Structure prediction request, 267 residues.
Amino acid sequence: MINWAFLRQLLHPPPWLLYTWIVVVGEGILGKAFGCVVRAPPGFECDAAYALPMPIGTGWPIRVVLGYFLPAGLLFLVVQSVSEALDETAKASLDRFFGRIVHADPYSLLGTVDQRGLHPPGWLAPADGFDLQPFDEAELHRHAERAFVLVQQAWAQQDPMLARTVVAVRTWQVFNERIDDSRRFRRGGILLAGLKLAGGRLLRTGYLGAEPAAAVRLQVRCSDPLTDCEQDWTFVRPRDEPWLVVAVDPVKPESRPSGPDGRLERT
Prediction:
């Protein structure tokens, strides 16, 4: 009866056995042909069985470790490093060669209609209205532009830490989880080309809990991936600190408001 477990072990040996076997065979061939492949320094003697110099007076167990297992471990590290370097080089070359296909990933831009948005647990949008008075729209606009760029860079590069300072804590935790999920489908980040905000509108202001909140509709344009859409970004301002992103929602084309671009306006 065939021992399948033994057969699988024979055909797919573990690394510690495979690389040790390679070293044993290689050193045996080299030892017979050349003796030692390097000259023995003072305090060492040539041991043709391992094709390596060995410390004078060392016993059999130590010589086996120094002659077989240590070179096997070094060989394993070298092979793994070279393999990973070749994989990354090949991936980068393919990304450049098929750049238009890779960059066209609809998930490379956060907040499109292909996605489900970004919300903290138990999210409820602020009610319609403009309850914050007085209100500095120019300041919100500056913070919104900076937050938009950092969040999109973090999403495209799959690095949530890039947006850590502009996203509210609970939302950032969800953002981090979304990036972890995305990494399961694509390892590397995707560069965004020609990304810009063409305009924005203030939709509503109010309070989320005790924190001032404002919702802004941003008009997004990007040349790669080719995108022209609008997104609703909601911000909160804890204790008069800079505005932080708390939610991002895609806007369907039929629900977009009309009007001039380039500044925040109330609808």
